[in-house]
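Appendix B, example 12.
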Amino acid sequence: MNFAVGYPVNHGALSFPSELNGQDKEDMTLALESVALDTRLQAILSRAGVGLKAEHYRTIVATRPDIGFFEVHAENYMGAGGPPHRYLTEIRNHYPLSLHGVGLSIGAARPLDRDHLRRLKQLIERYQPGLFSEHLAWSTHDTRFFDDLLPVPYTSETLALVTDHIDEVQDTLGRQMLLENPSTYLAFAESTYSEIDFIVETVRRTGCGLLLDVNNVYVSSTNQRWDPIRYLDEYPLAHVQEIHLAGYTREADEAGRPLLIDTHDRPVDEHVWSLFEHAIGRVGPKPTLIEWDTKVPTWPELKAEADRAEATMVAVGKRERHRAAIGY
């Protein structure tokens, strides 16, 4: 089956007034490209994609691989220009794009950074991504910024804070945000909601969508001794618009119990593949991203992970249609 998806744009030969310098020409080119993107379909189909890494820019531009979409971290492209934007613009001309934020600090007990939100809005207007997502986490305190995405207690106070922040983001951007379930390593004693109940109520109050990170489900379930199948079965799957898959590192706590760290530095584990198959059986195919952020592999290795995700969605779809046909 051919899943090829592309949105080619022919800008033609651009001519510029002779008095424009190189930077002016670059700025005008970027403006014209943004206008062209506005006229195209932005939807991401239920295919597999990968995170876009600088190591793969040239290969992607040169070979135009058959892949569903690319996802980028918003904060990596908040500068005005330069090679990252030139490559991203070229790739965006041929593939759908998903934008994934890591810096809004949705769960922080402080106002959102308005300058950060303004830059995010400009980036979205420039590239018109099909999906935008952020984390149920916090990474700022007062004027300090942390490298980690830190968990929140599931309390009424936190719920009010998180929903207010999501409302502000969606109102500012003029579009829906997807909220990603976290990877967690401990539980807060003051929590009065389960994680799923907290997410359900957040969706009800804000109308946000969900990004289901299946690796996070397995990491959190192992660390906190939850049943990951039960977690998926109770999750509000009707609101899921994207799925993430990634690799984790296995360590041990002081008692020798398994401790999984969400590292995104290796292939997807077989346990996570199994949970992905279960999730797809419940919710159907969804845009599915392979996250591999450190120790970045060769392009063929990363592409093979995406191919497996896509093949899994096709196989599960056939299985579910067969079951429906025989009344299973």
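Confidence is low (pLDDT under 50) at residues 1-20, 27-32. The CA atoms of residues 78 and 119 lie 6 Å apart.
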